[in-house]
Amino acid sequence: MADLSQEEWTAQLKGDDNAFILDVRTAEEIADGYIPGATQIDIYMGQEFMDAIKELDTSKNYYVYCRSGNRSGQACAIMNSVGIENAYNLEGGFMEWEGDVADS
Fold it and tell me: Active-site residue among 22, 66, 76, 87?
């Protein structure tokens, strides 16, 4: 797992043909908007979250975010524990995101 600043996260994502953007926030939080192209798997779903993470393609590069960067950091650690080596946490999360935002 790597914690990346918004600038690092965005630059690395832009040049990555094998990227997967993962939003680990709740549906209520996503109602306020999300990063375009993101797939949501709510970390608060417990075992359902674990099951969904285990189904992900381990060869992809995962760009993970939440509201503030805490849950996404936990999600990256969980992903590493199930064999996903490339998980990148967005420091500051969606609260500090200055890029494009999609409406739900």
Answer: 66
